[in-house]
Amino acid sequence: MFHRHDLFKEFLHPEFLRIERKRVGFILGLFIIGTLILPVLHYLAPNLLRNFLNQDQFIGGLVFWWVLFCVFELSVYFRLGYAIKNKIQIPRRILLLNILVEFGLPAIVLYHAVKFDYSLLILEYDGLLFYFLLLMLSAMHLDFKISVGAGILAGMGYFLVAFWGIEYLQPEQDVVQLKEIYTMRSIGLIMGGLVAGVVALEIKKRVNSYLNSIEEQKEIESLLGQQLSKGVANELIVKRNEVVGHKVVGSIMFLDIRNFTVMADHQSPEETIEFQNAIFDPLIRIIEKHNGIIHQILGDGFMASFGIAVKNKNHAKDSLNAGLEIMEAINHLRTDQNGNNTRVGIGLHSGEVITGNIGNEIRKQFSIAGKNVILASRIEQLNKTFKTQFLVSEQFVEMINCKGCFDDLGEVQVKGFDENVRIYKVGENCSCSEN
Fold first, then answer.
1. Rounded average pLDDT over 209-220
2. Helix (H) or strand (E) run with residue 259 in it
3. pLDDT at 61
4. Whose CB among 230, 304, 322, 351 lies 3.0–4.6 Å from 372's, allowing a Cys bridge?
5. Could you write out the DSSP letters of every residue in 315-346?
């Protein structure tokens, strides 16, 4: 894991490799375009280019170094792509060798051009332009030292070719003045590397800041995910600034572990926590497996929803299947410690609820509210009255096409509701695979 505020000390960070691959690809593109355009220009306007392009010896040497450079750059490009895809490291010496090749080739080409053209003209424009292009691209290394080193290599290469050319050609111009000019240009290339390094440093800070923000968001999501369901955590992050609630149709489940208080009174704190973890771990996984989220975990139960935080047209079917799988899991858990005493009550109801982030800047909670949430809670409590474990409402039954699953228990008076509510018991052999 990368240390915050220091992510780029790991030189081979995947983001660096992607940027380096783009840089190499850009240089390859320039070389390929140049390779295609130069012969065409020479064919269409032979007098436009200088005489050395008409010399087979120079062309042969140029093609040799040109092909060697392209093959090397291609190998680096594909090696970077392979490393990114397979998440492996590339030795830094390969990337440094690439810099030496990139800034060594211009010096070789300039040397041959001066020798065969018998002129210093190529040093006036072409050589400087090519070096400055490479120096600008060196900023993509996001490494101050590499850009400065590239500037030094460029300055030294240009300086050595220029001074060799002066000695080789013995021009009629003022030699001292020529040496001063080429010395200043060489220093200019070194300064160009320095500027590229400063730019690289600034870009690196920005990229590092971006990576830090991603790491922080992942940590926030991870921390929230440990306290809340992923759906709730995402809603809190995405809609953190919203103050207006929404009306959404979905299914609400309440679950309660029966006799939990009595059981906890006869256990040590360690045994109670162990029992809670043993119960809630599979139940949480079941809820998430069926596209539901858990809003609150209490000591002896939880409230979950389906199709509310995350839209899901099959919320009723998913919630029923989750409840059925929970009942099956509870039956298996009865063979474990304290499992023989484990019973649960589940209440399911479907309808419109109000959702929103409730709280202040210090603490917020993604909440669902409304009479349908209260009714789902009341239905769960009716399990004690009917001595059952899984009850649903008439509205829920009407939303789902699962025949033979529900036993009509009739209408009952529910606390807080004026009209009676028809309740159904979910059969033990219920199976709901239809949409």
1. 70
2. none
3. 64
4. 351
5. HHHHHHHHHHHHHHHHHHHTTSTTGGG--EEE
CA distance 395 to 373: 13
Please write the tens of the pLDDT for every residue from 368-424: 889 999 999 999 999 999 999 999 999 999 988 777 789 999 999 998 888 899 999
H/E stretch holding 419 reads none
Q: Are strands 344-359 and 364-369 parallel, antiparallel or unpaired?
A: antiparallel
DSSP string, 26-86: HHHHHHHHHHHHHHHHHHH-TTTS-GGGG-HHHHHHHHHHHHHHHHHHHHHHHHHHHHHHH
Cross-strand partners of 249: 352
- Which amino acid is residue 168, in one-letter code? Y
Neighbouring C-beta atoms of residue 397, cutoff 10 Å: 21
Segments in 346-404 forming alpha helices (H)? 371-386, 394-399
Q: Would the pLDDT of 255 be above 60?
A: yes
With residues binned 3-state (H G I as helix, E B as strand, rest as coil), the percentages for the chain, rounded to 5, are: 65, 15, 25
In degrees to the nearest 10, what's the CA dihedral of 25, 27, 28, 31? 160
Integer-rounded Cα radius of gyration of the chain: 37
Tell me the backbone φ, ψ of residue 335, rounded to 5 degrees.
Answer: -85, -10
Angstrom CA distances, 206 to 94, 142, 199, 214, stand at: 26, 10, 11, 12
Three-state SS at 296: strand
- Residues 41 and 175 sit within 8 Å (Cβ to Cβ): no
How, if at all, do strands 364-369 and 390-393 pair? unpaired
Tokens found for residue 265: 């009174």
In this prediction, residue 231 carries a pLDDT of 55
Cα–Cα distances (Å) from 138 to 95, 165, 196, in that order, read 12, 27, 7
What pLDDT does residue 163 have?
92
The pLDDT of residue 3 is: 46
Residue 46 has pLDDT above 70, yes or no: no
Q: Could you tell me how many residues make up the chain?
A: 435
Decide if 310 contacts 331 (C-beta within 8 A).
Answer: no
Backbone angles phi, psi at 184, to 5 degrees: -65, -40
DSSP code, position 146: H
Any idea what DSSP says for residue 405?
S
Q: What is the widest separation between alpha-carbon atoms in the chain?
A: 114
Q: Do 326 and 255 touch, CB atoms closer than 8 A?
A: yes
Tokens describing residue 304: 């979950």
Q: What is the pTM of this model?
A: 0.50
